[in-house]
Each structure stands twice: as structure tokens, then as C-alpha cells.
Amino acid sequence: MATIFTRIASGEIPSYCCAADERHYAFLDINPLVKGHTLVIPRREVDYIYDLTDEELASLHVFAARVARAIKRVIPCVKVGEAVLGLEVPHAHIHLVPMQSERDMLFSREKLSLPAEEMQAVADAIRAEFERGQGA
Predict the structure, then answer these.
(1) pTM of the entire structure?
(2) Cα dihedral angle (51, 53, 55, 58), rounded to 10 degrees?
């Protein structure tokens, strides 16, 4: 049985896609800590991030860095934080969170509820910046 993230990456379940290539997929967290909170996954379904091969792990982090740079150009923030938790969904993933302060990375805090139109606009803006950065 495929994980929800595998089903999202395959297009079976709709998502707010921020970036994608043949090996990775990035989409907005539907329960974000802050506006622009994005999840980055390998398309290959692996539960534990450190079960990825060295090459896959490096590739995932390079892809995540490119997504983080796009997020920073779209969402005003001091930095984009990164977290790897991975207990709630058995599919390796990286959280990218635009930060004004370290409090923005507290996963125990109340999550935002943003309208679908705003989520789509944020995803579209991040994707446009990601694609613009491809040639950089």
C-alpha cells in the first residue's frame, strides 16, 4: 500500500505543488506552521530518510536547498529552517519552514488554516521562482 506522500507525488491525491523533478516532489504542508511551510520528498518510497542511498540523500538535500531558495524569494523571512521528523507519515520527508524566529519551527504549536486560494497562490509563486532558478 502506497503512502499518502507517494499518492500525492503521483498525482493521485491533489496537492499544492511547489517543485518537482523525476526524483523529488515538493508541496505545501496542508497544516502549516507558517505560510510557505513546504514538504520535500523523494519519489521513491522510503520510510527512514537515512535508509536512502548516499547519492539519493545528497540529491534530496540539493533539491531541498533549491526549493528553500525559492521559498525565501517568495515569503519574507530571515531564513528557511529545515527539519526531519518523519514519525507521522512513513515516507522520508524534509520540512522547509520560513522563519522570522526560532518559534516558527515549534511543531507543537497550533497550525495555520489558510484558504485554498492563498495556498494555491503561494505554491504557484514558489514553483515560478524554483523554475526561474533552474538556469541560475
Answers:
(1) 0.95
(2) 10
